[in-house]
From TrEMBL:
Domain of life, per lineage: Bacteria
Protein name: Uncharacterized protein
Length: 380
């Protein structure tokens, strides 16, 4: 259940009130998904999984009954399981337990019935765990992605909106309208070098299918790298870099482009991360070029969400290269709220993670919403 709200209000009382509000929103919108989104906008502490239950006006025990009805009572789920899943979705530690892919499918069907259980709204299981997607097991992430892609292929194709171009900001690279939707530019103050300009020009990546990964084309990928290059050029001083390191394959591609286009074909390092739930290790396949003492390094990552991958990797780099001066270039940074044009750096989900890493400067191409973005060819 959500944390205690108004003074003196118990979690149980707040839960009943939120279920009442959720049901009212469903009556106004006629959609469980829209009601859940509105509920999360009003109460940011509520995870998507819980918001969809509230949009049906259900308690945890009632949700469990609905779950068993969908399976024709071949399961005997209780309210404690619903609570464990919602606790996991809300927390970032080891609390609760994640629902399996099959359980998400059943929940999507159960909540699609609405408050009365007779509606036929098609909910995506990805919508239920939008902000917690990356904490699922790799197997369930892949299953969800394949299911979502197959489901999308069965839906009517809507005309793609025209891309917003910024020829005054990016003269040599524009994303064709038929490829991707690029949101507007906005200024963001990011950590930077001493006497450097903290203002970087960032753009948003609005997702036309909330709750689903936003697939990027090569044009959109190149557009983001061009944006990073412009930020690096305008940091306020020339950056002489000894190496570019890429985190996983997508980061490696970014590092390759930056090393070639901006840093005179400097050496390239590769950091292959193996992630199992909340544990991260570096694979022996990682490569470390020979560098001078106290080198200057640009670390490249495709996206920053909740997990402290970049902090772990940075500590490993500093162990191997004592005194290293590290800059950070990331393609997509997730925002805490649904508004992608954030007012400040601390409105990013990974702000604390990035600050704690102690980078000399930070470069960000775009902001994104949960569950994130997918690079071309499914680079990892």
């Amino acid at each position: 259940m959500p944390a205690q709200g108004r003074s003196g209000e118990s979690p149980q009382a707040r839960g009943r009130e939120l279920a009442r509000i959720g049901r009212q929103l469903w009556q106004e919108t006629g959609s469980v998904n829209k009601a859940a989104v509105e509920l999360m906008d009003r109460y940011p502490d509520i995870p998507s999984l819980q918001a969809h239950r509230y949009a049906c006006g259900l308690s945890q025990d009632q949700a469990a009954v609905r779950y068993n009805e969908v399976t024709k009572h071949q399961t005997h789920l209780g309210g404690t399981s619903i609570n464990a899943w919602e606790t996991w979705a809300r927390a970032r530690g080891s609390s609760g337990s994640p629902p399996s892919f099959s359980s998400l499918l059943i929940l999507a069907s159960a909540y699609g019935g609405g408050p009365l259980g007779v509606a036929d709204e098609r909910l995506s299981p990805s919508d239920l765990i939008a902000e917690a997607y990356e904490r699922l097991s790799p197997e369930d992430q892949l299953s969800l992605k394949r299911f979502t892609e197959a489901d999308a292929s069965r839906q009517p194709v809507e005309p793609r909106a025209a891309a917003v171009r910024h020829p005054d900001r990016l003269e040599h690279q524009a994303v064709p309208a038929e490829d991707d939707v690029i949101g507007p530019d906005f200024e963001l103050a990011a950590p930077t070098v001493e006497y450097g300009s903290p203002e970087i020009c960032v753009y948003s990546l609005p997702n036309p299918r909330p709750g689903r990964l936003l697939n990027l084309s090569w044009a959109a990928f190149g557009y983001g790298i061009e944006r990073l290059i412009q930020q690096i050029k305008n940091v306020g001083r020339r950056l002489d870099v000894d190496a570019c390191f890429g985190i996983n394959e997508a980061g490696l591609v970014m590092a390759t482009f930056l090393a070639s286009a901006q840093f005179g074909r400097c050496p390239i390092g590769y950091l292959k991360c193996s992630k199992s739930r909340d544990f991260i290790t570096l694979d022996p396949a990682s490569t470390y070029p020979e560098l001078p003492e106290a080198p200057s390094i640009v670390l490249c990552d495709f996206e920053v969400k909740h997990a402290d991958v970049v902090g772990f990797v940075t500590r490993e780099i500093r162990k191997r290269y004592p005194g290293a001066e590290i800059y950070f270039a990331v393609f997509g940074a997730m925002t805490k709220e649904r508004n992608l044009e954030v007012a400040g750096f601390d409105d990013l989900t990974g702000a604390d993670i990035i600050r704690a890493a102690g980078f000399k400067a930070v470069f960000i191409a775009a902001t994104m919403s949960p569950p994130g973005i997918e690079p071309p060819l499914e680079l990892r």
